[in-house]
Write a structure and sequence with these properties.
Glycosyltransferase, alpha+beta, 4-stranded mixed sheet, disordered N terminus, Glutaredoxin, 3 domains, globular
Length: about 625
Amino acid sequence: MATDLRVRSLWQQDRAGRNLRVTFRFSPRPNRAAEIGWRPWGGKAFQEAQVADKPVLLAISAVWCHWCHVMDETSYSDPEVIRLINERYVPIRVDNDERPDVNRRYNMGGWPTTAFLTPDGEIVHGGTYLPPDAMRSYLAQVADLWASQRSDLAQRVAELREKENEARSPKSGDLSVQIVDQVGSLVRGQYDPQFGGFGREPKFPQPKLLRFLLDEHRRFGYPEIATMLHRTLAAMAAGGMYDHVEGGFFRYSTTRQWEIPHYEKMLEDNAELLAVYAEAHRSFPTAGYDRVVRDVIRWMDAVLWQPDKKLWAGSQDADEHYYTLDSVEERAKHDAPFVDRTAYTGWNALAASAYWAAWAATGEKAFEARAHEAMGSTARRLWDPETKALRHFDAAGGSTVVNLLGDLAAALAANLDAYETGLHPGALGGAKVNAMTLRDRLEDPEAGGFFDAPEGTGAEPGRLARRERPIEENALAAEGLLRLAALSGEDEWRELALHTLRGFVGDYRQWGQFAASYANAVARALAEPLVIAVVGPDADSGALALWQRARSATDPARSLHRLVPGRADDRGFPRDDELLARLGFPNDRVAAYVCIGTVCSAPIADEASLGSALDEAGRRYTHPD
C-alpha cells in the first residue's frame, strides 16, 4: 500500500525511508503538495527539462515558513495546479536552509519563492506566495509562452543577464574612514526614534547593524548611538517580537511598534541577538540586558539543544495560536510547534560564539561549557580532515553541500572566540585551518573577497554556475582574518583581509543597511590592532586577576592571549611556548603585555596598571572632523 504523505508531520516525512531519503518536507497540516512530482535540485532535473523541452518550476521553501505551509495547503493542493505542474513543467523543490547557495541566486523577495525558469535555469518570471487562481494563470501563461514565443523569452532573459553581469562587476578601491561614516549616516537616517529599530514595517532586529553601532560607541562614545541602542534593545525585548513565556526572539515584527511578530524562531537570529545583548551588557552593565541573555539561553537550551548530537537544532516553527497563549500552563495543553532537528554548521558556530559572549558577560561557566561542547561536536560530526570539507548540515548519509563561506567564516570566528577564553589553546590551530580552507577553496584572487561556495565541476545547473560574493559573509571572514593575523603574527592573513575589504569599496553602497557589518570590519582594519597577553601559570592568582581584567576589555579591535608556559594544546603541541618565543616575552614571570600594532608595553604586574594601559590604548581612536 502506498504511503500517504498528505497529512503526515514534517518530522515523519523527514524520517521516512532511510534507504531512499525523502528530501521534501511539506506543511504539517493536511495538504496535497506531495502529489506534485518534485525533483531535487541538480543537473539531472535540468537535463530532464531540456530533453522534455519543458520549463522548470522552482519552489524554495523552509520548514519554519508560515506562508510556505499555506502554499502547500492551498496552491499546491489545488487539483488544476497539480495537473498543470505535472504535465507542463519539471518541478524542483529546494529547502532554503539546506541550500542557501540556490536561495541566494533565485529568491524572488521572500519565502516561499515561486520561480519560473528556462530548462537551463534562467529566470523567466517569479514571485513569493501565489494563491491558487494566480498560480493557475501563471502556470498556463509561462508554459504557453515557452511553447509559442520562445525567441522573445530568450531575448528578455539575455537582456536581464547582461544587466545583472554589469551590476555584479566588482570595483575595488582604498579603505577609508569615509566608508564607515557613510554607512553610519545611512543607519542613523533609518533610525526610528519613536519605537526603536530601523525602518518602519515590517521591522527586523538586524543584529549585525546593532553590533556595528555598539562597536562605534565603544570606539568614540557618541551618546546618540547609546540612545539608539538602548531604545532598540529595550523595545525588542519588551515587545511582541519576544516570547515572554518561553524566551527567545521571533523572526521579525509585522508592525513598526514591535507588537505583532511572525512567530517562527530561528537559531541564526537568536544566536546573533544573544551575542548583541551579551556584548551590550558588558558595555552597559546596569541596563539589565543580562536578563535577556539568560532568557534566550533558557529557550535555546530547552528547545533547540540536542543532547544526542551536542548541537543546536535549526529552528522552531511558527504557530500563532500556541504563541499567543500567555502562560506555561496553557501552552502545556497543546503540542509545541515543530522543531527542525537539522544541525546547521554556520548557525551552530554563531551560537557557540554567542554562548562564549554570554559567559564573558555573566560569568556562567555552563555557557562556556556548552559552547565548547558544540564546537567539539561540529569538528567530529561535520568536518572531514582528509578532504578539508566542512559540511553545511548533518544529513543522513552526509551533506554534499560543503565549504560554504558562511559556515567557514562563522567557524573561524568561533574558533578564535574559543581561543580567547584562555581555556582552549588548540582552537587557534582550528582557526588557521578554517582560514586556509577559505583561501584555498573560495578566494577570488583578482577582485578580492571570497565566493559563497566552492567552484564546482563546471556542470552546475542554472545560476549556480555564476559565483557570488555576499558582502555580509565576506565581512565576517575579513574580521576573522584580521583577528587571526593579530594572534598568530602571520601578516598573510591581514593582507588577505584587506584584499577582501578593498574588493567591495566600489559597490558597498548598493547594499544599504546590509553593509553595516562591512563598515564594522573596515573600521577594525583601519584601527591599530590591540593585543593583550597575560603570561603565567594556570592557577596563579596574580595571572588570573590580570586575565580577568584583560577579558573585560571591550575595545572592538582587541585580541587576547592567555599564555601558560609549558602548556600543550589539544594535540600535544607546546603552542604557548612557541608564541612566547615569537613575542619575546619571558616565561618565568607573571605579567601582562599590551601591544598596539607592533609595539608592546613593558611587563605589567597588577590590575590597576593594566587598566590604565587599556584606557590609554582606547585613546588611539580619534575621529577626523
